[in-house]
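Appendix C reproduces, verbatim, an entry submitted by the partner laboratory led by Prof. M.T., so that reviewers can inspect both the input and the predicted structure.
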Amino acid sequence: MSSKRELIEPTPGDKRYVRRDDQGRFKEVDDVGRSLSQDRKRQAEHESKKGEGDRGDRKH
């Protein structure tokens, strides 16, 4: 099972999406600005579940 991504801000102005493993350690880290800009450039093939917007499109 995959974990939901959460938004963290380690320093002011530096927001990141992270996923954690079963022990609570960071498994995947993505910069928010880069993640959102890449989302706009591509059409996803799959619909994603809530909290997993980086793994597909969400219905609006």
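Residues 14 and 35 are 13 Å apart (CA to CA). Additional entries are available on request from the coordinating office.
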